[in-house]
Design a protein that fits this description.
This protein is mainly beta. The chain is built from 20 helices and 75 strands. The strands form 20 sheets. The chain has a 5-stranded antiparallel β-sheet, with no helix packed on it. Strands 56, 57, 58, 59 and 60 form a 5-stranded antiparallel β-sheet that branches. A 4-stranded antiparallel β-sheet has the order 1-32-31-30, with no helix packed on it.
């Protein structure tokens, strides 16, 4: 096909079929008069090799610049003229750029903010500039003052806002609450990232760094408004301004509910994001590590708004994780474990490659739930906007995607690694540079529209709503361009025409709305920073008037609230920037109300500290911190998803000295000995050293249980070992039985148990043969250093004196291939009088065994087929029907893999390369095919022969697992299944069958590792207290860290209600591995045991 026709054909595909189809919510408006393309052309002295942000694109500003009631549109251009389009009504716009003073320019413009800087009632335009690395005058930001006649004059110098760094965006707001607008500016440091070697220079201001002057233009900047002149106060205000400040986005809002504005900055590359908490004294404190558990690694744009209608702002940042497996494997590389550990050790916190949705916990904490919500992946993403796109009363999330050249294309990176190619770039010859740039792929990507389902989950409706046009989109903004009560969108694209989308939800859905146009006091005429709360049937629809949002863009000041099918609202609260408030009773809907602060009856707004009596409060203790060794499983086994060497601490409790008080054992890690604690009458715990423990201090204790092993009337101690770095021939995996003398003095009984060769998962005493003594089931966690290879669990028969015989092969042969066991319970779950053993583990379904005719026989249940990564199980009668229920903890629904019964994850085990070493290949199901989870680089490190058969990434990306290896190797491979992630409660029906109920959303935000069932609120019903989190994954998988301890109140009728964290009193960070309940008289206390941290003791008030 001739090139001309090919171009026309591609153009038709991209732009021709753009009219709205029936049922689509958005219509791409043609012939609107808006004709703008952000054309970016690589040149000899100005190209992607010279300027790192060459393809970052431009922004969009929406605002009414001539006060005619119609929102106008402004575009920033990198290499061409910025453009201003006047709204003439009915989606017709006039290009007034030349007349307005926006003609051809040399500046590389980036962000735009609409702001009435002089409070004359006319919107001015602030334009951020960057690029031009050797011409600092061209980097000066511009402030275009509105002359009231559709013309503008640049007055940035006069206002003190002509910053000549590398500005991405600026936001204007009143940070010090003195009544006028100040300015926060994010600049993207231009310094080559590879020259920094992950050095943490966060506290060294760029201007004080020993680098060339042209590299000092990064960092964040805070300007205080001093009577109309802006003065920089960054250093004294606590604002970072270093060489590693790679700011790409800024969003403003009250994150902690104190009514003062805080600032979130999204940083690219290895620097973590910043969350500046307003100290209310003119300073800020970066508290990102206090408020969040992890961030996006290369955060792009950011926005802050309420996604669950609780009145608290949530935070969304975009990243570069593709949601398409082919794109993932051709354009993505994840940090390896060494780089991740180096970053954490260097102070860059926990960062992972995915979009982050930080859910406000309303107590000074956030929970990152992007994967639970389904918004974690959208490819190379820039702008995001959180707004109600369909007017149903819930904020949706729009994400603009695409980069004109795939800089991270892995095949190009391999090509560019060639020394000769790099020399061609350094030569500066245009033809040679152009030929290299042409090697980069250029793939337009559809933008995303994540519809809010109202339950903290989202569905991508980009295609259904007509927004999935493949593009290279960057900045985007929303506003009601036609004044019909829904929010339209404008998108700035690289090297293709911009998009104008008309929202038709008013016509399609008939959803109602209410709108507000606020007028503030003379020094803040547009009431920037005001918060509007619409109260409607127990929900709070809230918005803050902050126009600078997303990526380099500015939204309209008019606030539109979708109301869905609601026909009335309860009330409206406007909290003005000077901390006064108006309470409005508005009857008429589908109306935009003009609210003038000066004409309102206002009263002071005082932050009401909600009087909550928490259920639990912390008790100070003297328990020692659990300290892990630094063994890293991934060094021995490259392509496994998580480590199994840090499973402790585990604990167990019993009265050890006959005083009627429950005492405690806490297992130790490698060379950190275990400890017995005796409880005193006052409720304290004192350590009681045990000489018998000394010889075993090098062991890692991962399971423990008290029981009367020798039938002498006191409680003996059985300990199981793990660590995943011990081999069986050293004896460090053997079980250890310590006999109690009745006074809490323990003696090791050698040879009480046979040799054991596996890491222990759980130990359960049980009299399976009803001979009057307690036998023991030991669930094997895994085979040391061989992830996935099935270990052999064991059944030990007690001879009555504390000596145990392995009877597994004769009585319980199924146990030899049971699986990777994590937990088990013994109890009666049938109508029979005999108890059963219920076992859970990873790549297992919950399996039930009963002793029948001299054998442990698996019982048929409807739990069969729920193959999870189960972590815990407890038995209790939760619904009070006299039948035992099962609470079973899984990994939850906020993880990387997301398997389902229809699309399972599989683990394939075999020697795939014939080197007499077992390989493990993890796959997930996409379009019915088993595709490798890991990238090409990681796979060929483990199995080098793959490189020969997959010379480039594109070839590898197209192959299923079965295509990578010979048929006979695949057929002979052992396969383990993972198809279910939810934590559940299985309501017992008394016949071995269950009604299976998924536990509430908040439980699914993380793993459920441990639990206690007890009556928390003294209503006679059994409630649940839960602990979780798992950190030991490869960086590709991120962390599960969105559990601070949970309380589920039993409301009866099988309803479990989650208690908000601020009411529960639980704020437990870290990985909870075990929990123990103490009943001290009428007082209940729960001890939470955390990996590599001190235990937390909480008492029920």
């Amino acid at each position: 096909m001739p090139k001309t026709y090919l171009f026309l054909f591609v153009t038709f595909l991209l732009f021709g079929c753009t009219k709205s189809k029936d049922g689509q919510l958005f219509e791409k408006v043609e012939n609107s008069g808006i004709a703008f393309t952000n054309t970016v052309t690589d040149e000899k002295d100005n190209n992607i090799f010279k300027y790192r942000n060459f393809y970052n694109g431009g922004g969009v500003g929406i605002g009414d610049i001539n006060n005619d009631g119609l929102a106008d549109v402004f575009f920033t251009a990198n290499q061409g003229a910025n453009k201003l389009f006047l709204n003439k009504g009915d989606f017709k716009f006039e290009d007034i750029s030349d007349k307005a003073g926006f003609s051809k320019k040399d500046q590389w413009s980036t962000g735009v903010t609409m702001v009435d800087i002089n409070n004359d009632g006319w919107l001015d335009i602030y334009v951020a500039n960057a690029g031009n690395m050797m011409q600092e005058d061209l980097r000066k930001n511009q402030l275009f003052i509105n002359n009231h006649d559709l013309t503008f004059t640049d007055s940035a110098e006069a206002y003190g806002l002509a910053n000549n760094g590398y500005t991405t965006h600026a936001s204007f707001f009143d940070y010090d609450m003195d009544g006028d607008l100040d300015c926060f500016m994010v600049n993207n440091s231009p310094i080559p990232v590879n020259t920094l070697n992950y050095a943490n220079a966060r506290d060294i201001r760029a201007e004080n760094s020993a680098v060339a002057d042209f590299l000092k233009g990064g960092g964040d900047h805070l300007y205080k408004n001093e009577g109309g002149k802006f003065v920089e106060v960054s250093a004294e205000a606590g604002i970072h301004g270093s060489l590693i400040s790679f700011g790409l986005g800024v969003t403003i809002g009250d994150v902690n509910g104190d009514a003062w504005p805080d600032v979130y900055v999204s940083n690219d590359f290895f620097e973590r994001d910043y969350l500046y908490i307003n100290q209310k004294n003119g300073t800020f404190k970066d508290e990102i590590e206090t408020y969040t558990e992890h961030n996006s690694i290369a955060s792009m744009g950011t926005d802050m708004a309420d996604v669950n209608n609780d009145g608290y702002p949530d935070i969304f940042t975009t990243e570069m994780l593709p949601d398409n497996d082919f794109r993932l494997k051709t354009t993505t590389s994840f940090d390896n474990i060494d780089i991740y550990r180096l970053k954490v050790a260097s102070g860059f916190y926990h960062q992972f490659m995915h979009n982050a949705l930080q859910l406000n916990n309303k107590n000074g904490k956030y929970k990152e739930v992007a994967r639970f919500s389904g918004v974690e992946a959208s490819d190379w993403s820039w702008g995001e906007m959180i707004f109600d796109a369909d007017n149903d009363g819930y904020n949706d999330i729009y994400v603009s995607n695409g980069i004109y050249r795939d800089l991270t294309n892995q095949d190009f990176i391999d090509f560019f690694a060639n020394t000769m190619i790099q020399k061609m770039v350094l030569s500066g010859k245009k033809d040679e540079i152009s030929s290299i740039i042409e090697k980069m792929s250029s793939q337009p990507i559809p933008n995303k529209m994540f519809k809010n389902n109202g339950d903290l989950t989202f569905k991508d409706m980009g295609k259904d709503w007509g927004l999935d046009i493949p593009s290279f989109s960057n900045g985007a903004a929303y506003g009601d361009l036609d004044n019909d009560g829904d929010l339209d969108m404008v998108v700035n694209n690289n090297n293709m025409p911009s998009f104008v989308f008309k929202n038709k939800s008013r016509e399609k859905n008939k959803n109602g709305f209410i709108g507000f146009k606020l007028k503030g006091l003379p020094q803040n005429i547009n009431a920037v920073g005001a918060k509007i709360n619409v109260f409607i049937q127990g929900q709070i629809l809230s918005k803050e008037v902050i126009p600078a949002r997303g990526f380099q863009s500015s939204v309209d000041y008019k606030q539109i609230f979708g109301l869905g099918k609601f026909k009335k609202i309860d009330s409206v609260q406007v909290i003005w920037p000077n901390l006064t408030q108006s309470i409005l009773k508005l009857q008429k809907l589908d109306t935009v109300y003009a609210i003038d602060q000066a004409s309102q009856i206002v009263k002071p707004f005082v932050v009401q500290q909600e009087k909550v009596a928490p259920l639990f409060e912390e008790v100070k203790t003297n328990f020692e911190k659990h300290t892990e060794d630094d063994h890293v499983d991934f060094y021995a086994e490259r392509i496994i998803p998580r480590i199994l060497s840090q499973e402790g601490p585990k604990a167990t409790t019993a009265d050890l000295n006959g005083d009627g008080l429950a005492d405690l054992f806490i297992g130790g890690a490698n060379n950190k000995g275990s400890q017995i604690y005796l409880q005193t009458a006052s409720g304290n715990f004192n350590p009681k050293p045990q000489m018998a423990f000394k010889p075993f201090e090098s062991y890692e204790d991962v399971a423990a249980v008290f029981f009367d092993a020798d039938k002498d009337g006191d409680m003996d101690l059985l300990i199981g070992s793990g660590g995943n770095n011990r081999l069986s021939n050293r004896g460090e995996l053997n079980h250890r039985l310590f006999l109690n003398d009745g006074k809490a003095n323990f003696t090791h009984l050698a040879d009480a148990f046979p040799v054991f060769e596996y890491n222990t998962g759980v130990m359960v005493p049980m009299d399976y043969d009803l001979d009057g003594d307690l036998d023991v089931f030991v669930g094997a966690r895994n085979t040391p250093l061989k992830y996935g290879v099935t270990p052999s669990s064991a059944l030990y028969q007690n001879d009555g004196s504390g000596k145990f015989k392995d009877v597994t092969s004769t009585i319980a042969p199924d146990f030899l291939k049971l699986g990777m066991v994590t937990s088990a319970v013994w109890g009666n779950i049938t109508s029979k009088t005999r108890s059963s053993l219920i076992v859970v583990g990873e790549y297992m379904y919950p399996v039930v065994y009963a002793f029948e005719k001299g054998k442990m026989v698996e019982q048929a249940t409807n739990l069969n087929g729920l193959n999870g990564w189960w972590q815990s199980i407890q038995m209790a009668d939760i619904d009070g029907d006299g039948l035992q229920d099962l609470i079973i903890g899984n990994m939850g629904e906020n993880g990387y893999l997301k398997p389902t019964p229809a699309a399972p994850v599989k683990l394939w085990i075999n020697d795939f390369d014939g080197n007499e070493s077992i390989d493990k290949i993890l796959t997930r199901t996409i379009d019915g095919k088993d595709v490798p989870v890991f990238m090409k680089g990681e796979m060929q490190e483990q199995i080098p022969l793959l490189k020969k058969e997959n010379l480039n990434y594109e070839v590898y990306a197209k192959k299923a697992f079965q295509d990578l290896f010979k048929k006979e190797l695949v057929e002979k491979a052992a396969m383990k299944l993972y198809n279910y992630t939810s934590s559940i409660i299985a309501w017992g029906k008394g016949n071995g069958q269950f009604d299976i109920q998924r536990l509430p959303n908040e439980v699914q935000f993380s793993s459920l590792n441990a639990m206690v069932s007890t009556d928390v609120n003294a209503d006679g019903k059994t409630d649940l207290v839960l602990g979780g989190n798992q950190f030991g994954f490869l960086p590709q998988f991120g962390r599960l860290d969105a559990n601070y301890g949970l309380v589920l109140i039993n409301k009866g009728k099988r309803v479990l209600e989650v208690v908000e964290d601020k009411q529960s009193g639980l704020a437990i960070t870290g990985q909870v591995r075990d929990m123990v309940l103490f009943q001290q008289g009428a007082q209940k206390k729960i001890l939470f045991f955390r990996n590599n941290q001190a235990p937390v003791f909480m008492k029920l008030k």
